Amino acid sequence: MDALELVEIRAQEIAVRIWHPQASRTLIAWHGLARHGGDFDGLARELGPDWRIIAPDTPGRGLSSWSLFPAHDYLYERYMQLALALLDHFRLTHVAWLGTSMGGLLGMMLAASDQGRDRIERLVINDVGPEIETEGLSDLASYFAVPHFFPNFGALLNEVKSHYTGFGIDNEDDWRRLTLNSARRLPDGTWTFHYDPRIAEQFFHDTPRDLWADWRAIHCPLMVIRGEFSPLLSEATVERMQEIHPDMASLTAAGCGHAPMLDRAAQVTPIREFLEHSGDAERRPRQTAGWWQKLRQRLVSTR
Questions:
Q1: pLDDT at residue 207, rounded to an integer
Q2: CA 5 to CA 272: how far, in whole Å?
Q3: DSSP 56
Q4: What is the DSSP annotation of 178-196?
Q5: φ and ψ of 105, to 5 deg
Q6: Where are the domains of the chain?
Q7: 110 pairs with which residues across the strands?
Q8: Which of 90, 98, 154, 203 could join 124 via S-S bond, C-beta 3.0 to 4.6 A?
Q9: What is the per-residue pLDDT across 266-291, written as a single tens digit (0 to 9) for each?
C-alpha cells in the first residue's frame, strides 16, 4: 500500500487503501465478505505501476468504522450507496471494477443499476456469480455467524491456514502475512479476526434479489474468474453466464477454491489483458467483437 485515505460517508469512516496513486489508469478493487482491501497488495504488485488500485475496507472490516446499526448498514443496498459516494469522492465518472466474492456481487449490482450502469466501464468478478451453490453459501454463513477466539497467535495462524485454504497460498511467509492482516487482539490478550462479528447479520437482514436479472442487465465488458475447486461458483453457472453474455472472458484459477488471491502472474496477466484490450475495443467499436472473441479464446485455452 502506497497511501491510505480516510473518507467520511454518513458518519462512518471508510479506510481506502491505494497503490500507485499517480498512475493514469484506475481500478476499484473490492474485497470479500470477511476480508479487507489489503488483500489486493499482490494484485497491485503484479498489475504494475500503470494502474492505480483503490481498495476500500467495507464498514465492519479492516480499518473502517464498525456500524452501530448492523441491520441497516451491513446490506448490499447500503454498500452500493457507499461505493457510489466513493466514486464521487475520487471523481471517477467511468472506472474499471474488480470484485472478489461479495465485492463481485456488489460490482454486478452497480453495473446493472440505473445509478451505476454508466460508471462501471468494465467488470471483473472473482469466484462469484448470479447463482451461488447452496451448500457453499450455507457453510460460509455458518462460519462467520459465530465469533472465533484463539488463545494465541499460533492458534489463529493454524485456523487461517485451514479456513482460507481456497486462496491457493503456497508458502509460509504469505500465510503469516495473511494472518497478521487478519488479526485483532482482544483486551484479555486472546486473538480474533479483524472484522465486526455482526457482519454476518447481512444473511438475515438483506433483501433477496434476482441476480440473474442483474446479470442480464449489464452492458459493460465482463470477465469472470473461478477457482478450480470453488464451492460457491459452479462450472454450470459460468456456462450459463456465458450464454447470456457470449463475449464474456473467463479464467479458471488452478489449485484454488474460494477465492483466488489474484496475486500471481498466471492470474493477473489475463486480468491485465482484459482491462487493457477492452479499453482498446471501446475506442474502436467496429473491432469490439473481434477483440473479445480473440481474448476469450486465449483465456479459455489457459484453463
A1: 83
A2: 25
A3: E
A4: HHHTTEEE-TTS-EEESS-
A5: -65, -40
A6: 3-145+209-301
A7: none
A8: 98
A9: 999 999 999 998 444 343 333 333 33
